Amino acid sequence: MRRRVVAANWKMHGSTATIERLLKELQPLRVPQIDVVLLPPIAYLSDVVAHLRGSSIRVGAQNVHPEPEGAYTGEVSAEMVKDLGATCVLVGHSERRRLFGEGDEVIARKFVAALRAGLEPILCVGETLAEREAGEAEKVVTAQLDAVVGVAGVGALKNAMIAYEPVWAIGTGRSATPSDAQGMHRTIRERIRALDPAIADGVRILYGGSINAGNAASLFAGADVDGGLVGGASLNAGQFMEICRAA
Ligand code: PGA
């Protein structure tokens, strides 16, 4: 059985005060059966790690640079994120692809960098609305997956997770239907199965895009849906805890 995961993508939100409050509000959360991951802005990563010391909640970053160090002003390496006490990192979030011009090649390098540093990458894939309406959702998502697997090798997925996040569902209040989500998760898993059945059975595939306390249970009911990547609703402790309990 794959252990379920719920990850909180706080994006560029929060302050010392609001994050402290949120962490306090999350204290009653007790879900030992699942992995809970918090992904704060890098500026607060150390604070969150320190606050959660001794807890089973994991902490990760939202992005890393592919190189371990160097003259890359303003960037942060996977090694640095690991050094701060994080255990995982998002790679290829659609906002990175769309707003920061990240293509498959750099995303593959970031994925490899995360593994090199001993972090578990969460590879985000997902189609735009135009791509879905053109009937190309599966083609787009499998190409995003192939681009990383082609570079890192299928075996790399042993220490990684995948998040299927349809771009049109992110921050829009319009999630995928449970059956559309399950369908794409199945497609992703079957794609991996063709290369390595054991890896396919083990890899955790999260759904992301407008998950909330009301729709989480039905989305997580899909046989190939192993949890969620939660944006907006993760900034509300009550909502986030309900989503964790749904998992
Ligand atoms: P959302 O964001 O839950 O606010 O739609 C999800 C994400 O971007 O990971």
The helix-and-strand class reads alpha/beta
- Could you state the order of secondary-structure elements as H and E? EHEHEHEHHEHHEHHEHEH
Report the total helices: 11
Oligomer: single chain
Chain-averaged pLDDT: 97
Strand order of the largest sheet: 1-2-3-4-5-6-7-8
The level of helicity is 40-55%
Query: How far is the first residue's CA from the last residue's CA?
Result: 14 Å
Morphology call: globular
| Regions with little confidence, pLDDT below 50 for 5+ residues | none
Number of strands: 8
Please tell me how large the radius of gyration is: 17 Å
Hetero groups: 2-phosphoglycolic acid
Q: Biggest β-sheet: count, sense, barrel?
A: 8 strands, parallel, barrel
Q: Report the sheet-strand fraction.
A: 5-15%
Summarize the helices and strands and which ones pair or pack.
Layout lengths: L4 E5 L6 H10 L9 E5 L5 H7 L6 E4 L16 H6 L4 E4 L2 H6 L4 H14 L2 E6 L3 H5 L3 H16 L8 E4 L13 H16 L3 H6 L1 E5 L7 H5 L6 E4 L6 H10 L1
Parallel strand pairs: 1-2, 1-8, 2-3, 3-4, 4-5, 5-6, 6-7, 7-8
The site of 2-phosphoglycolic acid (PGA) has 13 residues, from strand 8.
Brief rundown of the structure:
41% of the residues lie in helices and 15% in strands. The protein is built from eleven helices and eight strands. It is globular, with a radius of gyration of 17 Å.
Question: What report would you give on this structure?
Answer:
α5 packs across α7 and α7 runs parallel beside α8. The chain has 11 helices and 8 strands. Helices cover 41% and strands 15% of the residues. The protein has helices at 16-25, 45-51, 78-83, 94-99, 104-117, 129-133, 137-152, 178-193, 197-202, 216-220, 237-246, and strands at residues 5-9, 35-39, 58-61, 88-91, 120-125, 161-164, 204-208, 227-230. The chain has 247 residues and is of the alpha/beta class. The chain has an 8-stranded parallel β-barrel, surrounded by 5 helices. 2-phosphoglycolic acid binds at residues 9, 165, 170-171, 208-211, 229-233. The site of 2-phosphoglycolic acid has 13 residues, from β8.
